[in-house]
Write a structure and sequence with these properties.
Blueprint lengths: L5 E6 L5 E6 L6 E2 H9 L6 E4 L7 E4 L9 H4 L4
Antiparallel strand pairs: 1-2, 2-3, 4-5
């Protein structure tokens, strides 16, 4: 299985990532739609964070690079 790669992200006015853009797509995918994909291992370099009392969200795996960080892609860093 070829994993999808996130190339851009959008955030709301509070800085929360709301949508991601996959390489090869022209339309953004909601985070709510991308979370099940990440759970199934379909998105490279990404995992789902779940904490009690907090909203479930996507996060890129730490690798020391800023360019593939979702906040950086959304212009929030």
């Amino acid at each position: 299985m070829t994993k999808r790669r996130i190339v851009d992200a959008r955030a709301d006015s509070e800085g929360d990532i709301t949508h991601v853009l996959f390489d090869g797509n022209s339309r953004y995918t909601s985070v709510d739609g991308a979370i099940p994909m990440a759970d199934r291992g379909e998105i490279e370099n990404t995992h789902v964070v779940r904490r009690d009392g907090a909203k479930t969200h996507l996060r890129t795996n730490p690798d020391g690079r800023k360019g593939n960080n979702l906040d950086h892609m959304a212009g929030d860093d």
